[in-house]
């Protein structure tokens, strides 16, 4: 059974960089497409970006200039980097995966990681 | 960007009632539509993908239909454990977008 666990600092200062990691167990991350999604408190879900393979990642245009998603296959981890954060980036951040070998979509989710942007 | 709308924004229904949620895309997305259920303080859970394919272990009281721009999620017999917010998401055209959510309560 694939399990995902997000981790990272819960507090980030304004203008600094938010870095989160999604650690995957139970299968190789190479078998999945990876997506980051965020949710501000009391609000809906926002799609951040979708990693297909190295060099082929699609990002939300509203975040594209500040966001990077990458993978480390040796550690079986997916990372999210968001530069120049503001209070508007305060949210719960989720990683989610979809198998490359089926039509399934985002059937695996982490529990989420709360990030607060504040000085 | 493709805009996803959902109606109603909230619904309150009795146990055993049938509940239908509609999701509409601003342009055609074939059948690349997923439904998620989210309970307070929890991560979303996938219910349906490809508009109508139920995830394994999701009870058959949930069903999805539609193609193109109009989609529905139906709960055939509402139970207390179905109280949650339901989101649709299109994953046909980047950027992938979510609907605003429909909150389902038990009356």
Q: Characterize the biggest β-sheet of chain A.
A: 7 strands, mixed
| Beta strand count of chain A | 11
Give the CA-based shape of chain B.
globular
Content-based structural category of chain B: mainly beta
Coarse morphology of chain A: globular
Number of helices of chain A: 0
Quaternary structure annotation: heterodimer
- Beta strand count of chain B: 11
Termini separation of chain B: 36 Å
Number of helices of chain B: 0
Q: Rounded to an integer, what's the Rg of chain A over CA atoms?
A: 14 Å
Strand and helix order of chain A = EEEEEEEEEEE
Structural class of chain A: mainly beta
Mean residue pLDDT of chain A = 96
Write a short abstract of this structure.
The complex is a heterodimer of chains A (119) and B (107). Chain A is mostly beta strands.
Give a written overview of the molecule.
The complex is a heterodimer of chains A (119) and B (107). Chain A is an all-beta fold and 119 residues long. Helix content of chain A is 0%, strand content 53%. Chain A contains no helices and eleven strands. In chain A, the strands form two sheets. In chain A, strands 2, 4, 5, 6, 9, 10 and 11 form a seven-stranded mixed beta sheet that branches. Chain A has a four-stranded antiparallel beta sheet with strand order 1-3-8-7, with no helix packed on it. In chain A, a hairpin with a 2-residue loop joins strand 5 and strand 6 (56-59). Chain A is globular and about 40 Å long. Chain A starts with a strand and ends with a strand. Chain B is mainly β and 107 residues long. Helix content of chain B is 0%, strand content 50%. In chain B, 36% of the residues are buried. The mean pLDDT of chain B is 98.
């Amino acid at each position: 059974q694939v399990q995902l666990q997000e981790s990272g600092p819960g507090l980030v200062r304004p203008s600094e960089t938010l870095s989160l990691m999604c650690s995957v167990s139970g299968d190789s991350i190479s078998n999945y497409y990876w997506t980051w999604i965020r949710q501000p408190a009391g609000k809906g879900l926002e799609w951040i970006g979708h990693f297909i393979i190295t060099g082929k990642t699609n990002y939300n245009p509203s975040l594209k200039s500040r966001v990077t998603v990458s993978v480390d296959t040796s550690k079986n981890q997916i990372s999210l980097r968001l530069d120049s954060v503001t209070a508007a980036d305060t949210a719960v951040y989720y990683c989610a995966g979809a198998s490359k070998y089926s039509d399934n979509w985002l059937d695996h989710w982490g529990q989420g990681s709360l990030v607060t942007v504040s000085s | 960007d493709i805009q996803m709308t959902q109606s109603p924004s909230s619904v309150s229904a009795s146990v055993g009632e049938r509940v239908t949620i509609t999701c509409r895309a601003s342009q055609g997305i074939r059948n690349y539509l997923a439904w998620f259920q989210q309970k307070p303080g929890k991560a979303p859970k996938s219910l349906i993908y490809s508009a109508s394919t139920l995830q394994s272990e999701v009870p058959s009281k949930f069903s999805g239909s539609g193609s193109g721009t109009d989609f529905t999620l139906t709960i055939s017999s509402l139970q207390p454990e179905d109280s949650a917010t339901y989101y649709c998401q299109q994953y046909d055209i980047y950027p992938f977008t979510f609907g605003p959510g429909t909150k389902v309560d038990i009356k």
